[in-house]
Amino acid sequence: MGPTDPDQTRAALARLLAAGNGVLRCDPAWVARDFLPPGRRLGLPEHGYDVGERGSICERWLTSTTKADNRVGPDDEGLSYAVGEDGERILLRDAVLADPAAVLGPTYAASHPAGLGRLAKLFDYGDRLPYHIHPPQEFAALVGANAKDESYHFPAGVDMGAHPETFFGVHPWIAEQRAYDTLLPYLVDWDSDLILRHARAELQVAGEGFHVPSGVLHAPGTALTLELQEDSDVLAMFQALNAGRIISKDLLFKDVRPQDREAHGERFPLRFVDWETNGDPWFYENRHLSPQPVDGSTGDGEESWIFYNTSKYAGKRLVVPPGGVHRVREPGVYSVFVWSGHGRYAGHEVRGGEPGLDELLVTHEAATREHEVHNAGREDLVVFTFFGPDLHESAPTIPARGR
């Protein structure tokens, strides 16, 4: 687990930052789930997905300071380690806690005590995820957690799986007529997937994505998905039958206090639903994310916004052609995930598809000075970058349509 004493952690962090010139290299953090089969597109060897009682490796969390909230699993599941060339390793979470100013910058650290405040991940399932919801902040706070607004991007060039469509929200009439109890029998009976008859499906298109606030019901399809979200792992399952088996009903109440479950039963999770947003007839137009050009980009590469429409996080895609050099300067700390190609990023060797060489955290001091991205290969160098809350005011917002 590495040093846990704050003084030791600060000293180790200082050594890694000095060696990396303000950039931390991170090892991959693999996360198991036990309610669906894996999609097997994360690059692990075939035998590497099955992890026994824990289920299967279905997700990879990127520069994560968030602990996976699983029934069983190691104490550090979901947490990333910053690593040095000499083998030194420290939990990124411990580093941010021990010296937030060194990672986030003094000003941002003072105004954002929660740390990085976001989580990036790849999720990879062989079947569609069940229809579920993330409690809004007022309900997440009841169990000592954060809300989980999230956004998706579907990387190009990957098999989309058997069901590349996502169910969202509810049919507009349910919200318009305040017929909220329409969903209740499915939660009480807990024996089918027929709750999906009240939702709408949207095709998952490579290179595009969606913005999904907390309080929105959704059942993501089988496309390999790059997700950026708030720093949280809260949820309530609303679909009982999925991938041929009944999910434990405990997941409906996973983030419900025992006293609320006892007093209100299945009606309580229905309080998580933002009915107006779920029933928005313009849901697609108001939540669909297509790449948007980044103004003022400098160099040979092409930068696009892929995560936007919120102040809670932001993200870009950078494509640098063979032999190209792109110059980058950002307003604060951010994460780097190299999707394909190879070269150098802020002085560090990077290679897409090689865990251990594809993941960096660029701390505030390095992020705010100009640094370069070099493509040293014969194919495009494709890089995704992730930012926490309030760092990118220039990220676009979708003009609201409809009500």
With helices defined by DSSP (H or I, 4 residues minimum), what is the helix count? 12
- Kindly state the mean pLDDT as a whole number? 96
Q: Report the strand count.
A: 28
CATH superfamily of the largest domain: Jelly Rolls
> What level of helicity do the residues show?
10-25%
How much strand?
25-35%
**CATH structural fold name of the largest domain:** Jelly Rolls
Distance between the termini: 50 Å
Main sheet attributes: strand count, strand direction, barrel closure? 9 strands, antiparallel
Poorly predicted regions: none
Q: What's the CATH C level of the largest domain?
A: Mainly Beta
How does the helix and strand content classify structurally? alpha+beta
Mass-distribution shape: globular
Query: Cα-atom Rg, whole angstroms?
Result: 21 Å
Can you tell me the CATH architecture of the largest domain? Sandwich
Integer count of domains:
2
Give the spatial strand order of the biggest sheet.
Answer: 5-4-1-26-23-28-21-20-18
